[in-house]
């Protein structure tokens, strides 16, 4: 309240259901059994959305794992999601990557495209533009490996659709903040 | 092995079996009483209990009873309640008390047995995924698969259950871990790096709060169970802060007793069945100071019409409670005790003169004159309100603890029984668990053997856990079960009358037992009363009886609980007396 002008009452604050926003949250947790279940269970129990989720241990010595969750919700809901996550005992920190404006988000995808002739050449040409690597090839198919922001991968798969897109496997979003500091 | 050698083992070799580690850790945590029920997967722990006499084990009749008894013990002492049950059905029967303790922030440690580690996941006999089932209704839980982690886990569980916003913690211990030998470690130095609840208020939040308090013309304190959880010191500080400010004060169901009901500035309980003056003060105030309450839907009524003209200060130890339901102007994340101390110090130090609030108090007096809790005189039958009122008058000068079940009787108890001290009122507020009161009374009596412990019950609720009378008889716990018997699930009947066209679908308590004979069958004492003129004498008989009593108080059958804020209505739209049901709109009917 000290930073912003004080409204006459709490009810003068924005109370209308605002539009939903997309957020990327990095959740640092103790890597103990069931921790992912706790985090995911919280989202389903309280009716929050999960658009993408990635998790892996990032510090073996400290048993720290990093969970990156992409979620959508009203600002009020997003505030609650953060607070509710912090209530979980094994959660050490929640970092709002989107809000911090210093966040970098990347995703990796494996994209299988099958085709012959002109379409096959076109697929390879587009892959070059997107800096996707060919990691497997047969006479009739390619598997591309592509990394980038999620919308870049969306774009890539859209372009591959008419060229014989067969299957996509995506990691979900990974995130980190710019600068020298952790967290 | 006697206690001597166990203690010696703990201090010298520090090598012992998992079962012995459990007992040693409980003892180090100061546990003197626990509630439980044995079974295959906890037999090693029961074996370790057998050879010691420092921890008293109260054998219940159903695991749910153990959980609620532990809750009653915890709520009445401020210490964590401990329950011990077996795997599978033992654990699933504990789920209701765990969820109940979670909703009401009751510190509790539940130890469950589990099938041996090599059988986990095989659908073994009496196996269930206890940590999976309790994950969403406990503050935290553990499955201990290595005996070397056991002692630390138990100490950590106590730390988590009792600190921050208290709650239930479950420790699931496979049978082979109970048998195997490991190292005991003491509680010193045990901590959880990711768990650091904030207890001290920030200075600028206190400064902002004080500025609002010094400018308020129509202030009200709205206090809750957090004050009780914060300990007797918090209640004392609340009283001091109220005395210094002179602000009127109301409380939630969970907070009753933190402030004396005999005080002139006490407004009565707030909420759906709260006092007219309390709800109107909440609606019309210009400053609401919420201390350890969480804007529950039973308190706020219609959110968009909740206290529209006020600024709000919210003290809560759980940051997720802040702005969850109601936007507040000054959040103070802290333990109630620390925040109240800071506000009191600040108020005393400040030289700003607070405005005169006598006009506001005059207004409150006018609301008080409505006398919202008045009820018609007994017309041959005993009015339930009258029964609670007489019970209060005849027990108020004693060292009395009250528990309740859930429903109309619970609200009448909250309205007509008055509390002067915290930890004297035990009720299931958040989860609303019928069947809470009787086992809770067992737990309270176990903690306070010489006090008068009364479960104010309804004839429907009490039958959910009736079997715990047997526990009371076995352990010589002279609890008094005071049943307001109107032969109906009263609150269900009331809602059906008001909201469902008087279609009383399955709410009549058909085939009731003869409670007097039932008491006698259990070896307890039974009393029945239907005549208002005999009520006092029979209540006295109940009090004087040295042993458990079931008091079957036959009351007016179709009495409704008023005042009432209908679902979907605002605080200033209270209903005071009998109504037709038209007062509740379509939206309101859809709410619970």
UniProtKB/TrEMBL annotation, chain A:
<dbReference type="Pfam" id="PF10369">
    <property type="entry name" value="ALS_ss_C"/>
</dbReference>
<comment type="similarity">
    <text>Belongs to the acetolactate synthase small subunit family.</text>
</comment>
<comment type="function">
    <text>Catalyzes the conversion of 2 pyruvate molecules into acetolactate in the first common step of the biosynthetic pathway of the branched-amino acids such as leucine, isoleucine, and valine.</text>
</comment>
<dbReference type="GO" id="GO:0009097">
    <property type="term" value="P:isoleucine biosynthetic process"/>
</dbReference>
<dbReference type="GO" id="GO:0003984">
    <property type="term" value="F:acetolactate synthase activity"/>
</dbReference>
<keyword id="KW-0100">Branched-chain amino acid biosynthesis</keyword>
<dbReference type="InterPro" id="IPR027271">
    <property type="entry name" value="Acetolactate_synth/TF_NikR_C"/>
</dbReference>
<dbReference type="InterPro" id="IPR019455">
    <property type="entry name" value="Acetolactate_synth_ssu_C"/>
</dbReference>
<dbReference type="InterPro" id="IPR054480">
    <property type="entry name" value="AHAS_small-like_ACT"/>
</dbReference>
<keyword id="KW-0028">Amino-acid biosynthesis</keyword>
<protein>
    <recommendedName>
        <fullName>Acetolactate synthase small subunit</fullName>
        <ecNumber>2.2.1.6</ecNumber>
    </recommendedName>
</protein>
<dbReference type="GO" id="GO:1990610">
    <property type="term" value="F:acetolactate synthase regulator activity"/>
</dbReference>
<dbReference type="InterPro" id="IPR004789">
    <property type="entry name" value="Acetalactate_synth_ssu"/>
</dbReference>
<comment type="subunit">
    <text>Dimer of large and small chains.</text>
</comment>
<comment type="pathway">
    <text>Amino-acid biosynthesis; L-valine biosynthesis; L-valine from pyruvate: step 1/4.</text>
</comment>
<dbReference type="Pfam" id="PF22629">
    <property type="entry name" value="ACT_AHAS_ss"/>
</dbReference>
<feature type="domain" description="ACT">
    <location>
        <begin position="24"/>
        <end position="102"/>
    </location>
</feature>
<dbReference type="GO" id="GO:0005829">
    <property type="term" value="C:cytosol"/>
</dbReference>
<comment type="pathway">
    <text>Amino-acid biosynthesis; L-isoleucine biosynthesis; L-isoleucine from 2-oxobutanoate: step 1/4.</text>
</comment>
<keyword id="KW-0808">Transferase</keyword>
<dbReference type="InterPro" id="IPR045865">
    <property type="entry name" value="ACT-like_dom_sf"/>
</dbReference>
<dbReference type="InterPro" id="IPR039557">
    <property type="entry name" value="AHAS_ACT"/>
</dbReference>
<dbReference type="InterPro" id="IPR002912">
    <property type="entry name" value="ACT_dom"/>
</dbReference>
<dbReference type="GO" id="GO:0009099">
    <property type="term" value="P:L-valine biosynthetic process"/>
</dbReference>
